[in-house]
Amino acid sequence: MSGRDAGVLLAGVGAVVSPIGLGEVPALMSRVDNKYLVTAATMARLAAEVGDRFQVLEIGGLRQFRYTSTYFDTPELLTFHQHRQGRRRRFKLRTRTYLDGGGRWLELKLSGARGSTDKHRIPYDDAPGRLLTREALDFVRDTLVSELHIMAPEGLGPVLSTDYRRVTLIDRSGAARVTCDTGLLCHDGRRSAPARRDLVLLESKSADGKAMVDKVLRGMGVRPVSVSKYCLAVAALRELRANRWHPVLHHYLDPKVLPRAACRTHSRAGC
Fold first, then answer.
1. Is residue 69 a part of any domain in this protein?
2. Range of the domain at 145
3. Angle at Cα 107 formed by Cα 177 and Cα 195, nearest 5°?
4. Residue 55's domain is classified under what CATH number?
5. pTM recorded for the entire structure
6. How far apart are CA 214 and CA 228, in angstroms?
7. Number of domains in the chain
8. Which ranges constitute the DSSP H helices of the chain?
9. What is the tens place of the pLDDT at every residue in 158-174?
């Protein structure tokens, strides 16, 4: 690993952009997400190109926040395999704790038509992040039936957690935002897998997937990647096949800690 520390760079980017409070940020619960994996140098170029068009989320005087998410799945890893296979009706279930901004939510992310993402969530401050309460299970069952017309699987339980830092940039038009994640660490209580410190995982979120940032990145020769923090973490920590995620897995995560089995699979795939 070499190059600049992307987390330090983003702290600098956030410091020079005008702030916006959480109450002023428009909701984007239904949207199209485009994900990009960029170097710190590319992030610096992007910030210079679009900086005056964006504001940075600020809460309690902070502009870079620590997040931890715990993902839930069945013992057979149903949701992982549905995502790996590209099933049309699929979901991810997690708790997300905002370590700096405060609060915890239970979030159910549904994959919809034409690559759209619908996020449903309920406050979860009064429950542990690794526990699904009766209220939580009712929420999951009701949402899956009403939105995807499927029954919730049995045996949902905590599988792994991800920790990272995030800077959120909000388009001044209110129609789009960009989340910038660094310092990713995946862990399941037995093993851990950190990401490279010189890379940023960008997510451009907009109603149609054609935000200004997407156009600028295309002009810079940067293309979207297929990536899921949860699926990458499962593949790395459980040594499972990741199919289309293999190139990102071996570029994004620290190669020193990747399982040898995953590296062999990667080599055979020619990624």
1. yes
2. 6-269
3. 65
4. 2.40.320.10
5. 0.89
6. 18
7. 1
8. 6-16, 40-50, 78-84, 134-143, 212-219, 229-238, 246-252, 260-269
9. 999 999 999 999 999 88
Distances, alpha carbon 200 to alpha carbons 38, 177, 180, in Å: 5, 15, 6
Q: How confident is the model at residue 259 (pLDDT cuts 50, 70, 90)?
A: low
Average pLDDT over residues 3-29: 88
| Strand 54-57 versus strand 19-20 pairing type | parallel
d(CA 66, CA 61): 14
CA distances from 133 to 30, 75, 82, 140 (A): 26, 18, 24, 11
| 145 DSSP 8-state letter | I
DSSP 239: T
Is 1 within a domain? no
Give Cβ neighbours of residue 251 (< 8 Å, ≥ 6 apart): 37, 196, 199
Tokens 């992982």 correspond to 80
Longest Cα pair distance anywhere in the chain, in angstroms?
A: 49
